[in-house]
UniProtKB/TrEMBL annotation:
Full protein name: N-(5'-phosphoribosyl)anthranilate isomerase
Keyword Magnesium set for record: no
GO biological process terms held by the UniProt record: L-tryptophan biosynthetic process
Pathway assignment: Amino-acid biosynthesis; L-tryptophan biosynthesis; L-tryptophan from chorismate: step 3/5
Keywords, sorted A to Z: Amino-acid biosynthesis, Aromatic amino acid biosynthesis, Isomerase, Tryptophan biosynthesis
Domain of life of the organism encoding this protein: Bacteria
Organism: Petrocella atlantisensis
Gene for this chain: trpF
Length: 213
C-alpha cells in the first residue's frame, strides 16, 4: 500500500533525541535556528545532522532570517528543506536554492487566503496563529477550514499541537502530505520516548485499518 503521509519531528536539539527518533519511521527531522527554547546553533545543528539516519530529510526552521543566514545553515548543516516561519515574502522564497515550506499562521478561515501569496514555495505549512508567538505553541486550529478552502496545489504540511492524543481524530478530518509533530511529543521540553512510541503505534494501527478497508 502506498504511504498515506510523511511524518516530521521538529525541535530536535540533543543527541538523545536524534537517537530516539532514528528508531522510528520518520521522514523529516527539524532543527530550529530561530530564537526559541528549542534553538540550536549551526555547530550543534551540524553535529546532530551527522547523527541522523541517512534517509531522513532535514528541515531548518527560520523566522525572518537573512538570506545569508539561511544559506550558511543550508551549507553547514546540509539541509534538505527550509521552513520559513515569519513574515517572509514570495520574493525571498524564490531565492532559496532548496525546497521551501512557508508557514501560514491560521487564526480563522480567511487566514488560508494567504496561501495565494506564495506561488513559488514548494510546501505550505499550516500552523496555529498564537498572539506573540511564531511557533511551537502546542495549539491546534480547526482543520475543517482546510477542507472548506479546497485544493491546495502544494505539498501540505499540517502543524500546530499535533500529539499522540489527537492524531487519530485529526486524520478523520484531514490527511495532509506531512504531519508535523513538535511540543506534543515532549515532556519538560524533551522528546519523550513514551509519547513517541505511542504516536507510532497509533499511526501503524491507522495504516493497517486503512489497508483493510
Ligand atoms: O518550536 C519552536 O520553538 C518554534 C519556534 C519558532 C518557530 C517555529 C517553531 N516550531 C514549529 O511550530 C510548529 C508547531 O509546533 P507545535 O506542534 O505546536 O509545538 C512546528 O512546525 C514547529 O516546527
Amino acid at each position: 500500500m502506498a504511504k498515506m503521509f510523511d511524518v516530521k519531528i521538529c525541535g530536535i536539539k540533543t543527541q538523545e533525541e536524534v537517537a530516539l527518533v532514528n528508531r522510528y519511521p520518520v521522514d523529516y527531522m527539524g532543527l530550529i535556528f530561530a530564537p526559541s527554547k528549542r534553538q540550536v546553533t549551526l555547530e550543534k545543528g551540524k553535529k546532530l545532522r551527522s547523527m541522523m539516519r541517512k534517509d531522513i530529510k532535514v528541515v531548518g526552521v527560520f523566522v525572518d532570517a537573512t538570506y545569508e543566514e539561511i544559506y550558511r545553515a543550508i551549507v553547514e548543516c546540509d539541509l534538505d528543506v527550509v521552513q520559513l516561519h515569519g513574515k517572509e515574502t514570495n520574493d525571498e522564497v524564490i531565492k532559496i536554492p532548496i525546497e521551501v515550506w512557508k508557514s501560514i499562521p491560521v487564526e480563522n478561515k480567511t487566514s488560508l487566503m494567504q496561501i495565494k501569496q506564495y506561488p513559488d514555495c514548494d510546501g505550505i505549512l499550516l500552523d496555529t496563529y498564537y498572539k506573540g508567538s511564531t511557533g511551537g505553541t502546542g495549539h491546534s486550529f480547526n482543520h475543517q477550514w482546510v477542507n472548506e478552502y479546497g485544493d491546495i496545489p502544494k505539498k501540505l504540511i499540517l502543524a500546530g499541537g499535533l500529539s499522540p492524543d489527537n492524531i487519530l481524530s485529526v486524520l478523520e478530518n484531514l490527511v495532509p502530505d506531512v504531519l508535523d509533530f513538535n511540543s506534543g511529543l515532549e515532556t519538560n521540553l524533551m522528546k519523550d520516548p513514551l509519547k513517541v512510541d505511542m504516536l507510532f503505534n497509533k499511526i501503524k494501527h491507522y495504516e493497517e485499518e486503512m489497508e483493510d478497508e
